[in-house]
């Protein structure tokens, strides 16, 4: 009962490697019964030899005795020379093969031959490289590629990020960091966990511990949407920090700001605060097994909890206080209630409470009050914000 088996195999794409000579390897994300996720790399010649051995082990299911009994999927033989085009075009077939393989009867899908082939090897964690030769080129398979498997992206230059503080991993699927480490980001998940690689290591890393090499990555973060998107809480959470919210499963809330570290600013009635995005699900979306498993993990750390004076996150990043979120959220609600029938130009104007409307003509224009620091940080250009920082 305790034997390991594979729950799912997902083809991520392929790599073009240059050492010891130019060749291609496919990247697979293998999900195991203990909820761990591993990335493994296999050449197609290896996969085909694995397939041939599997057919020999199960001659009935492979159709060798009667073709009508075949349930093991077909796999084309390798070409005399496998170039990039054949490697790319084969992805759809290979993705379908893996999906069918995992869903075969347990005597096949959970046999040692399948389990051992997809186990992590030493060269998966420590690929043979040469510092004098250029880094591998990564070609990721688009998420919607099942319908159009030949629609593959071009070579992807992975973004390099720097660790701003030490991080100790809490599970085998994560990767430990030391302040100053340079990592390449393979996948950015909106739940705040990013899949990274660094030399011989690969694993999930909290986005809060990473910063780009050239400056704060504000451009990747969405602007606040005070209209809000309706989400449903899928897992309860008790606030730890003062600016977080305590909610229970089933609560309906509105997301007003999606941040890269996986902690979103949400609104419950007229109260705003931070909440882990991995515990939320958009209203109307169907729950999946992957999402359910993800919620079993702990929430990633917040950027505000990482103390590092050298981090550039605190040098130029746009800061929005909870008071600003609350003020704008409350005004948005008031505008939505009171000015629904007004024109768009009037609806977009935010009127301060302390500014009484006065339509009487004045002899001279009044000098407007100096805007607050929060208002400048929230509304002005980067050059203006830098002057008050």
Automatic annotation (TrEMBL):
GO process terms (BP): respiratory burst; superoxide anion generation
SMART domains: PX, SH3
GO MF, one annotated term: superoxide-generating NADPH oxidase activator activity
Keyword Transmembrane: no
CDD domains in the record: PX_p47phox (cd06887), SH3_p47phox_1 (cd12021), SH3_p47phox_2 (cd12022)
Domain PX: 4-125
InterPro entries: NADPH_Oxidase/PX-Domain, NCF1_C, NCF1_PBR/AIR, NCF1_SH3_1, NCF1_SH3_2, P47PHOX, PX_dom, PX_dom_sf
Top-level division of the source organism's lineage: Eukaryota
Region of interest (Disordered), residue spans: 338-374
Cellular component terms per the entry's GO annotation: cytoplasm; NADPH oxidase complex
Basic and acidic residues bias: start-end ranges: 352-361
Chain ranges of the SH3 domain: 156-215, 226-285
Subcellular localization(s) per the UniProt record: Cytoplasm
Alphabetized UniProt keyword annotations: Cytoplasm, Phosphoprotein, Repeat, SH3 domain
Pfam family, one: PX
Name used for this protein in its record: NCF1 factor
């Amino acid at each position: 009962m305790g034997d390991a088996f594979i729950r799912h195999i997902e083809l991520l794409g392929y790599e073009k490697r240059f050492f010891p000579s130019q060749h291609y390897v496919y990247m697979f994300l293998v999900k195991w019964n203990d909820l761990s996720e591993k990335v493994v790399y296999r050449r197609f010649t290896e996969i085909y030899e694995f397939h041939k051995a599997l057919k020999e082990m199960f001659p009935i299911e492979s159709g060798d005795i009667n073709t009508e009994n075949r349930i093991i999927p077909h796999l084309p033989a390798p070409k005399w020379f496998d170039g990039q085009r054949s490697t790319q075009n084969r992805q759809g077939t290979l993705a379908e093969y893996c999906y069918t393989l995992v869903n075969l009867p347990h005597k096949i899908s959970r046999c040692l031959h399948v389990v051992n082939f997809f186990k992590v090897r030493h060269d998966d964690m420590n690929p043979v490289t040469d510092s004098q030769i250029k880094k591998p080129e990564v070609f990721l398979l688009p998420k919607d590629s099942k319908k159009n498997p030949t629609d593959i992206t071009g070579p992807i230059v992975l973004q390099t990020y720097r660790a701003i503080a030490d991080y100790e991993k809490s599970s085998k699927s994560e990767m430990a960091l030391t302040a100053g480490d340079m990592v390449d980001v393979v996948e950015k998940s909106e739940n705040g966990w990013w899949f990274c690689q660094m030399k011989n290591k690969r694993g999930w890393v909290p986005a809060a511990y990473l910063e780009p090499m050239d400056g704060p990555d504000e451009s990747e973060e969405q602007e606040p949407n005070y209209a809000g998107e309706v989400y449903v809480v899928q897992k309860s959470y008790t606030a730890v920090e003062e600016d977080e919210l305590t909610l229970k499963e089933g609560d309906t809330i509105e997301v007003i700001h999606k941040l890269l570290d996986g902690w979103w600013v949400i609104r419950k009635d007229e109260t705003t605060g931070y909440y882990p995005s991995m515990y939320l699900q958009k209203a109307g979306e169907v729950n999946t097994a992957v999402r359910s498993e993800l919620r079993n993990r702990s929430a990633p750390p917040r950027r505000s909890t990482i103390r590092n004076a050298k981090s550039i996150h605190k040098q130029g990043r746009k800061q929005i206080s909870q008071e600003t979120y609350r003020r704008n959220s409350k005004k948005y609600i008031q505008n939505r209630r009171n000015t629904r029938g007004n024109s768009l130009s009037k609806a977009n104007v935010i009127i301060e409470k302390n500014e009484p409307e006065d339509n009487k003509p004045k002899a001279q224009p009044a000098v407007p009050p100096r805007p607050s620091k929060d208002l400048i940080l929230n509304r002005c250009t980067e050059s203006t914000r830098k002057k008050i920082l």
